[in-house]
Write a structure and sequence with these properties.
By secondary structure, the chain is mainly alpha-helical. It is built from 20 helices and 6 strands. A 3-stranded antiparallel β-sheet has the order 1-3-2.
Length: 492
């Protein structure tokens, strides 16, 4: 691309990165998005979390700069940054959800990376870059050499150099990098690692642009479905077989190798432990940068798979036939929308009829209608001749659970545990079966209610114990009754 005046003027007007750098809020946008997205390597964030983080940022800035600084709400700023005239964030909705999601655009990450490059570096190395360039040229030369004789000559030279180095190491001559060389190479590694993470967003963005072109072709297609499928399959193959697609597939295959991951992690740990690297104070995320690569690559893979899945649903045979009528109706709307995308109209584009909320006023609801009250007939009550023993109405048994709990606690003060039969031998049942049931209720009460004041009860199902008590029969004679139940043990 030539940097002539017309090209630069067009970039200044349309490129989101340049618009960000020229914005009056560039400091807020760049610092906040770098802290939230770039530094922790966050790919996507939902609207609620992002708005909350921005609200905290705005509150802190208003405390420093005054209450009039950045007067709008956080959600308004996010929608403004995601608008087409800005393009610093991408706002979208995941399938099946109604909560907005935000992700950083490649242009914004380029602007942030350029701002980072403006800071002074404590050490600027050039040797590692020269060696990297030389190694790249060497790989290009070897990879494109078709003459077998020349390839064999290069391999023999490498073999002779390796054998000579092995001989020097065996003789005790081990050449080590000095601190300057180590710092130079590690800084180059940090820069390339950051650039690689930024490239993932651009690769994903380019995949989405290619998919968008296919959808535009579908929207404007007026031929047969067979010809459309041929066109689309060719486009999908073009996406996967493009330079970016092949390069990304090669990187992904390399990164998915467990042996390569272990080797990369081991070498990274060794490099970060060197005193020269520690003196550089590398970024904390450098220790897990290979995990960040894997996470970013996985997100790109999911995006490509999701685009393919949406395309398959769109081209499903039955759905295509059922929605043909809808596609015909929307054809004119989509065509006009694509035509207006480059030059947005001013004012009202179209009017949509029958769009309004149904309002139901509170007074339109009917008032409460009380139910009819039945009227009792004025009848005189006659006194019956039957005699009823009313004493039975008052002859009820009430068990004092507090007394039973006190009896259990008193027995456990003298010994660590006691069975229910032993307790009833010392404190016989006064109210018969009702009192025995009350003991069982205390034993099986929920521990959260503290029914036993911190005591516990254990049931031994293997032992059956008889529990006798004295009662009276219907004639008023004294009788002995007995119940058999598993052994119940009260403990502290």
């Amino acid at each position: 691309m030539s940097l002539d005046h017309a090209t630069l003027a067009l970039l200044r007007e349309r490129h989101p990165a340049w618009r960000l750098l020229a914005s009056a809020h560039a400091a807020l946008v760049a610092s906040f998005l770098h802290r939230v997205f770039v530094a922790p390597n966050v790919r996507v964030m939902n609207e609620a979390d992002l708005a909350e983080a921005l609200e905290d940022e705005l509150y802190a800035l208003r405390e420093q700069l005054g209450p009039d600084a950045y007067p709008k709400a956080a959600s308004e700023y996010l929608n403004d940054w995601a608008a087409p005239d800005k393009g610093w964030l991408r706002k979208f909705y995941k399938p099946g959800t109604d909560e907005a999601q935000f992700e950083l655009t490649p242009a914004t990450e380029k602007a942030i990376a350029w701002l980072l490059s403006l800071t002074e570096r404590p050490f600027v190395g050039t040797e590692s870059r020269l060696l990297t360039l030389f190694a790249l040229l060497e790989q290009i030369s070897e990879g494109t050499e078709a003459d077998p004789v020349k390839r064999l000559d290069e391999l023999r030279k490498k073999r002779d150099a390796l054998e000579a180095e092995i001989a020097r190491v065996q003789a005790g001559e081990v050449a080590l990098l000095d601190d300057t060389a180590v710092k130079d190479r590690f800084q180059q590694f940090q820069q390339l690692a950051r650039e690689l993470l930024a490239d993932f967003r651009e690769v994903e963005h380019n995949f989405r642009l290619l998919d968008r072109k296919v959808r535009e072709k579908i929207a404007l297609w007026d031929g047969s479905k067979g010809a459309l499928l041929d066109q689309i399959m060719g486009e999908r193959d073009a996406i996967t077989d493009s330079d970016q697609g092949r390069s990304f597939r090669g990187f992904w295959d390399f990164l998915l190798s467990s042996r390569r991951q272990e080797e990369l992690a081991e070498r990274l740990d060794r490099a970060l432990a060197l005193p020269a690297v520690v003196a550089l104070k590398p970024e904390p995320r450098m220790r897990r940068v290979h995990h960040d690569w894997l996470e970013a690559g996985e997100h790109t893979q999911r995006t490509v798979a999701q685009l393919s899945q949406q395309m398959r649903r769109f081209l499903d045979d039955r759905a295509f036939l059922e929605n043909r009528r809808i596609l015909d109706l929307l054809h004119g709307i989509e065509s006009r929308a694509l035509g207006l995308r480059a030059a947005l109209p001013v004012g009202t584009v179209m009017h949509i009829d029958a769009m309004g909320a149904e309002i139901e006023l509170p007074l339109e609801r009917p008032l409460h209608t009380p139910g009819a009250k039945p009227l009792l007939a004025q009848l005189a009550l006659e006194v019956g001749a039957d005699e009823i023993d009313t004493a039975r109405l008052f002859d009820q048994i009430v068990v004092d659970k507090a007394r039973l709990r006190a009896a259990v606690q008193g027995a456990l003060r003298r010994q660590p545990q006691i069975t229910l039969r032993e307790l009833l031998h010392a404190e016989p049942l006064r109210q018969g079966l009702a009192e025995l049931v009350a003991y069982l209720e205390l034993a099986h009460a929920d521990a959260g209610n503290d029914a036993l004041g911190g005591l516990r009860a254990v049931v031994d199902e293997t032992v059956q114990e008889p529990i006798p008590w004295q009662a009276r029969n219907a004639a008023g004679a004294a009788v002995t009754r007995q119940a058999r139940l598993p052994r119940l043990i009260f403990t502290r």
